[in-house]
Amino acid sequence: MRAMAYETYGGTEVLAETRLPLPKVGPGEVLVRVKCAAVNPVDWKIMAGGLDPLMDVVYPVVPGWDVAGTVEKVGIDVPEYAEGDEVIAYARKDYVHGGTFAEFVTVPVRALAHKPASLSWAEAAGLPLAGLTAYQLLTRLGTGQDDTVLIHGAAGGVGSFGVQIARSLGARVIGTASPRNHDRVRALGAEPVAYGEGLAERVRALVPDGPTVVADFVGGVGGVTREVLHDDGRHASIADPSVLGSGGEWIWVRPVGSDLAELGRLADSGQLKVPVARTFPLAELAAAFELSQGGHTPGKIIIEV
């Protein structure tokens, strides 16, 4: 199969198009023929060695954790899926090796969900990792209709999902963003506030008693969170482990198929949209990574295989 892979840590120069054997399909797994795969910052951070202290690596590495495609083959004891089914997955494995920037990838059934009918292949590929991150943080904090939620980074890849998901849970949402993104944040369903100096005062002007839930999707905002949080509030971060010292939770997204199916339901009901900024062919993965590294793309970057 065609795949983009690397044999050592480094920048985009280590990526190369190559031919690899089809992966074996173990019990409880399916082989997915990849239609589209989404780029996430974690992909190039892993390639640079950023997660070396956490995860074992087996070279050659095919990067990529987000996928949308069709079931090519089912392993032993997989009654939930059949060949030809359209599926999506956050396909992270327990070690770094066989990812989604290839023609085929194996995925454990626990990480799979059926593709939402309302989404294109590109949109569906952009949903799993970022959508699950936002969904799992907000539901872990018990977000509901009685809450006012402050989302740090509301215009970002995860934050934009967070706004929509919090609204679907019935919460009022305040979202931090640069002024140029305020219209976008407002369109997603949040009340925008500018980040930076004076943020705490601006949040308090909107929510005098403080938000009951704070979701940090950017890091470096722990001081503001503690300053504005309601006395009985809950908070969590995906980027700042120091929240553990102030009663918060540090969230690392899990590949849970049932959660992904709920995101699909929200998409099909019109409550969740997946913005796609740009698509690239598989051979241009390095260019897609470089665009992601710029950090200002208003939507998902998609690889069409």
UniProtKB/TrEMBL annotation:
Source species: Streptomyces yangpuensis
Pfam families reported for this sequence: ADH_N, ADH_zinc_N_2
Enoyl reductase (ER) domain mapped to chain residues: 10-303
UniProt cross-references to Gene3D superfamilies, sorted A to Z: Medium-chain alcohol dehydrogenases, catalytic domain, NAD(P)-binding Rossmann-like Domain
Name listed for the protein in its UniProt record: NADP-dependent oxidoreductase
SUPFAM superfamilies assigned to the protein according to its UniProt record, in alphabetical order: GroES-like, NAD(P)-binding Rossmann-fold domains
Xref: InterPro entries: ADH-like_N, Chloroplast_QOR, ER, GroES-like_sf, NAD(P)-bd_dom_sf, Quin_OxRdtase/zeta-crystal_CS
